[in-house]
Amino acid sequence: MKMNFAQTNLVVSSAIWLVCVCAGFHAMLAYGGRPGPASTVGPTWPAATGLKLSESPYTLVLFLHPQCPCSNATLNELAVLLAKCPQIRAQVLFIRPNVFQPGWEKTHLWTTVESLPGATAQVDPEGKESTVFSAQTSGECALYDRTGRLRFKGGITGSRGHEGDNRGLSIIEEIVQRGGTTAGEPITPAFGCPLTGKLSEHEAKGLCLN
Fold first, then answer.
1. Running DSSP on this structure, what letter comes out for residue 107?
2. Of 165, 152, 158, 133, which is closest to residue 58 (Cα–Cα)?
3. What is the pLDDT of residue 165?
4. Strand pairing of 150-154 and 186-188?
5. Which DSSP letter does residue 44 get?
6. Per-residue pLDDT at 37
7. Please, what's the b/e burial string for 154-190 (b: 16 or more CB within 10 A of its CB; e: otherwise)?
8. Is 153 exposed, middle or buried (0-12, 13-18, 19+ CB in 10 A)?
9. Do 71 and 105 form a contact (C-beta atoms < 8 A)?
């Protein structure tokens, strides 16, 4: 049975639509699974930092881009971690490039951090501390014990903006709750926007920058 023009056009249009949907879905998966660049930091608490090591058993330093929507998932995972591991004190640093006025960093993410028991929010002007800790990606964190020894470096989400069980959280829980002996080298990748680089006002308003 021959198809008329309208039927042929419908079949072709449907095929094109399906190809576009599949391509878009593949691109989303690839984007969500693309981590930030790997970075390393020394095995002990950096001497050059202006931050103070907590008196608690563990100190977690977490770096975030205040305008990165992926940071919501990171903070939700941080809330889960702090609830399970009250031995941790988290210092969450929000980068603020000098091109922006003070207050630019205080988005709803800042408010979320302030509501978390065991966490404090701080500004990181021009990413000075992120440089000291060799953090390049929003969501990257480093865990230190009371002696200042690095125990973990990496991210705490399984992919970009994705919440749920992930290797980073599991490793930290193993270290804190069961005395795991993980060394401190980069263990899990971080998924999020770059912490540094040239930012325009347009780029920095609610859009992922990768």
1. S
2. 152
3. 73
4. parallel
5. B
6. 64
7. bbbbbbbbeeeebebbebbbebbeeeeeeebebbbbb
8. buried
9. no
Helix crossing, 71-84 with 167-178: angle to 10°?
A: 20
Domains (range + CATH), the chain: 58-188 (3.40.30.10)
Residues forming beta bridges with residue 208, ordered by sequence position: none
Strand partners, 92: 62, 121
Q: Are 166 and 158 in contact (CB under 8 A)?
A: yes
Q: Which amino acid is residue 135, in one-letter code?
A: A
Residue 64 CB coordination number (10 Å): 32
Residues sharing a CB contact under 8 Å with residue 5, sequence separation 6 or more, in sequence order: none
Any idea which residue has 């480093």 for tokens? Answer: 142
- What is the rounded distance in angstroms from the CA atom of residue 67 to the CA atom of residue 60? 21
pLDDT on residue 149: 94
Q: How confident is the model at residue 179 (pLDDT cuts 50, 70, 90)?
A: confident
Q: Which of 191, 196, 182, 80 is closest to 141 using CA atoms?
A: 191
| pLDDT value at 100 more than 80 | yes
pLDDT at 201: 43
* pTM higher than the cut 0.90: no
The pair of three-digit structure tokens given for residue 25, joined into one six-digit string: 């879905």
pLDDT tens across 53-75, in order?
Answer: 999 999 999 999 998 888 999 99
